[in-house]
Each structure stands twice: as structure tokens, then as C-alpha cells.
Amino acid sequence: MIQHILVAHDLSPEADLALRRGAQLARRTGARISLLHVFDSREGDIDEQAARALLQTRLQQNGLGNGEPWVRRGHPAEEILTQAQGLEADLLVLGRHHRGSTQGFAGTMLERVLLDSPAALLLATIPADAAYGRAVAALDFSRCATRAMQCAWELLGDGAELHALHVHEMAEVHGPDREGLALQQELFDQLVEDIQQQLPDTGALLSHSLCQGERSNCMDAALRDLQPQLLALGSHSRGELSSALLGSLARQFLDQPPCDILIAR
């Protein structure tokens, strides 16, 4: 259950978007929300007072005027991870990394936070003008994929839909494997039924489907057809993203997000 949301803010427009999404989700789930900014210790003189004033303004603009931003100095990735653990955050929200910024989550910084985050991580990339209406969960038979789906479900409200997609991977040149597909469908139906019994009543709707073929083609087709605002992915131990369904697709989605991306371990 999501009880504490931590938004990491680097004073960029992308981080403003992440804060808007975090505030919206906090209102929907009833979770507490904290705002963190890290001054990179490798930088020179920094106007901390101006940064605090800007963050306080952003909190007020998002209906969080009673909040007080956390401001730390050090290596951004390390401080974000430390604060996420110390504050016992259930969800860490980041803005899309922008490679030109010295304070962004570009390259190894985003990767480090992603690989070591104790909390589920939400990469907010689309305008937060409305609540999530549709989400897709890439679901294999791993615990982390189940956790990602459960976390995504908690972010959805009345009337929203979560679609669980499983890919029975095979080279498309080989043609359909009807026997293998039937077995996978039976197992997947049972998995979804088991997960559904554990989901709280949020008013959201759950659907599921199985696709047989190459992973990238199946995922691209599902995202194109369903047009979700949120994509939930499972991450295996320490950065080894789910090879059963995702493989290198996860990095592709993080580099070029088609929507907001939620990753859970």
C-alpha cells in the first residue's frame, strides 16, 4: 500500500511535471508526500535560499503549502536513494532525465537510482492535467512484475482500466504455436485471477490478454492500440530487468518513454 510518496526535484520543468503528478497521486491515494532537492557537491557556489524559495512556491502551487522541502548536498543519486530509504518512501517520482542538465537524471544517475531504489519508481513524462485513465502492466510470472502491477493498480481510480499483457515469445517466422499458446493462456488466466483476488477495491477495471510473437512487436502494438498513460514493468534483482518479458525493452522505454513508466522490484 502506498503511504509515502517522495518526489525528487532538480529545479527543472520536467521535475515540476513530476511534482504535479506526485501531488495528484497523493490526493488520490491519501499518501503523504515529500519533496527533495539535492545540490550536487561537484558544483560551485549555490544559492540555497533561492532554491528553497522556488521549491516552496512549487509546493504551494500544487496545494502542498504546509510542506517543507528536504534540501541536501552530495551526489544526487546517492542522496535520493538515502532519503528514499530513510523516509520509508513507497513510491519515488522523478521527472524525465534531460541530458543537457548538470542536475538532471541523465545517464548513470537515472540508472543508479533505478537499479538501487528501495521503492517503486515512477518516471513522470506526460502532463498531469488528469488522473490516469488507462494503464498497461507487462506481466510475466515473476514477483516483481506482480508488484509492479499491484502498485499501478493503487494509482488508478474509479473507472480507470489496467490491462495486464503477457507475451508468449517466439520468432514470428515460425508461425503460431497453438499448443504452447493454449498452455500459456491457461497459466496466465490463473495468474491474473490470483492477483485480482489480492487487489483492493479502487473502482478501477482489470482486463488482460496474451500475445504470441516477438516481444518488441507485441509491446509496440499494445501501446499503440491501448494508448495508456502509464506502463508498469517489473525489475528483477539489482538492475536485471525481467528477461522473461521485457529484456532490453525496458531500457528502450526509459530512453524514449511512450507514457509514464512505473518500475517495481
TrEMBL record:
Q: Where in the cell is it found?
A: Cytoplasm
Span-the-membrane segments of this chain are none
GO CC term (a single one) = cytoplasm
Domain UspA spans what residues? 1-122, 132-265
The primary site where this protein sits is cytoplasm
* Record key words, sorted: Cytoplasm
Q: Tell me if Protein biosynthesis is a UniProt keyword of this record.
A: no
PANTHER family cross-referenced by the UniProt entry: STRESS RESPONSE PROTEIN NHAX (PTHR46268), UNIVERSAL STRESS PROTEIN A-RELATED (PTHR46268:SF23)
Q: Which family does it belong to?
A: Belongs to the universal stress protein A family.
Assembly behavior: Homodimer.
This chain's protein is named: Universal stress protein
**Species in which this protein is naturally found:** Stutzerimonas stutzeri KOS6
